[in-house]
């Protein structure tokens, strides 16, 4: 679009705004009628470990949302010479799962407990047995039931339980709703009803009653909505929350709030059966849209839903790039101390590409990247480790390769269940997230590690906020009967370029050797968690 046409789109409401609250950044992206980004804003934040729990402060969240929105709006004024007053549509997404409880007056009952917490093992195990469905530790249902088991006094005052995206949407619109993808990380979804599974709700309510609680789970959970349905409009109070200057007008139609897994699927055009995506940033997860149900319950596999309600298998790993990023920063400090001046992009490019020069098995080096507990491997805590034998080859190339392999190792253990015993058909995985920013490195290594082709689109850097903006655009622009898969394939991705890399045999063989050492080193990791 030409600049004048873009300005007209901003003034006429031919835009859609996506806001996503990620684990390290809050970002706002405004797209035009062609679905390409017009402007964006971002704000950095991070979780805090307080009283033994990982949390974020909601005051920090609102500060971040306002800063990201203001930066995006300023870009619009600078680039197109017009003021954004009313986007054509709005959507909010955020980290899935966790625990955000409120009382009848809307008061927050506890600090926000994020997906990163792994103190709900008893609840997750009991619920999985009771429901016959894998309930991971990070799911909202597990957090609630653990609070019940621990006799936390706030449970008696619980009136509403939601996710971070659901909370923001509630404050912006007054609507207590949630997109089905995000809802599927709170409680199991019945794929036929595209709603919470009623039989499982009844069983959960029996547990609540056994502990003396009279409320039902459905009473406190958000209402479930499919992608493309109306989810309220921006209120005057909500507009002020986003834009305290008063420039933003109320009345903007809002789509259902979604989780970051769903927006990742949308941003990579991975919502149809036999498609899948891998999102690699602070955490790491792969989503595979299923053609048929799995044959049994696996603790390593979450069963969730796409934003349009299709069943999907999710392998979620709590840690991906945190330790890798720490080593990059350390090596950057070393380079700076020696007089070399590299910006962040140049530093990552140098070090990631160096990994391709390493031995296929990393020369005997083994890294474990756990910053927190990891349910896939049964770890209750995390201690980042680098382990080597005296005869290992400690080189820069092997060090970087070991940390990149480590970022993918736990995901491989879960994916092997899908591609092995379950024989899930997967044509390829579409990658996005910070791990893939250096072209061709993590993509190639991921293909070798998972033994599946990995594609990265030219839009991969746009990520979840862009995916949320696409969901907002779909809600207001879709034709009658037009599915989300059709909308994405025909209107958004029809001309998007991509690069697909096949597994390299020596990478595949080298990773297999590394993974054997990695699994053996988990005994060292467990000892470190207990000792340190």
UniProtKB/TrEMBL annotation:
InterPro entries: ATPase_NBD, FGGY_C, FGGY_Carb_Kinase, FGGY_N
Keyword annotations: Kinase, Transferase
Organism: Pseudoflavonifractor intestinihominis
Ranges of residues in domain Carbohydrate kinase FGGY N-terminal: 16-241
GO MF: kinase activity
Top-level taxon of origin: Bacteria
Entry similarity comment: Belongs to the FGGY kinase family.
Domain Carbohydrate kinase FGGY C-terminal: 277-475
Protein name: FGGY-family carbohydrate kinase
